[in-house]
């Protein structure tokens, strides 16, 4: 795999063949549909201090915010009216949102909108919390592993360990969540061998969702002067992820659209099949600045959905507003029913 990654950098024909194979594999599994998820970034407060992230606890310049539960529910209501049937609740590791507050919020969402899936992206918690969140009705949990390299992980995450991150993913999977992992591409000092290890790790974990995106520097972090990741390399990793975990759901991320005007469309054509429009209130969107110059900060939710539909169709795909469970999860549902 390491040699293949190196060859992709050198041979555009091999790169084109990889993208074609990944696109064909995605079509065989999921068809032309692209699932839309309503993203709600509900808190920019974080206790961790990741070296690349604008939300890191040490960034005293960050303009922090925290949505109230009723504001989150209002975002869900707006999204539901627009047709979304999956809500992604994402935040920094904000301890104000205790287990009790989160479970109450999830139950309320499920009570008001019975046919939706709830995805959480809130970082590391203990087993008991994860179990209670699952019992409350949360369906999925995104927890990118960021890098499978112990060397890079330790360098970039001074308040965390790679062992803890991996154990949390396994705990979520054991409890019953559809889990999402994934990595950044183009981290300072990252090698092809380390990216190959990311693919090996993803294959062994077999997650339901894989988030791949380029490293984008933030001016208020220690990595402010580092070069951003390569879009082509990120697309290579999306295509390779599609091949090593063919049943996974793979987002065409906002970071891809930030690094290139057609980045999300290129990701869809390289094997991705999920897009996550932002449902957060317009006033807080600029404050959720993991990286800078993020796109679509000023688009109303309805405008954002319409724009993405046009982009998705223009790239040769179709919008699917269903829950969009992974094929792996669908098979598990069928086994449970029988």
From TrEMBL:
Protein name: Biotin synthase
InterPro entries in UniProt: Aldolase_TIM, BATS_dom, Elp3/MiaA/NifB-like_rSAM, FeFe-hyd_HydE_rSAM, HydE/PylB-like, rSAM, rSAM_sf
Residue ranges of every copy of the Radical SAM core domain listed in the record: 32-247
Membrane-spanning segments: none
NCBIfam families: rSAM_HydE
Residue ranges the record marks as coiled coil: none
Named cofactor requirement(s): [4Fe-4S] cluster; [2Fe-2S] cluster
Pfam family name, one: Radical_SAM
Keywords: 4Fe-4S, Iron, Iron-sulfur, Metal-binding, S-adenosyl-L-methionine, Transferase
SMART domains in UniProt: BATS, Elp3
Xref: PANTHER family: 3-METHYLORNITHINE SYNTHASE, BIOTIN SYNTHASE
Record-level Gene Ontology MF annotations: biotin synthase activity
Domain of life: Bacteria
EC number, as in UniProt: 2.8.1.6
Claim: Cell membrane is one of the keywords in the record: no
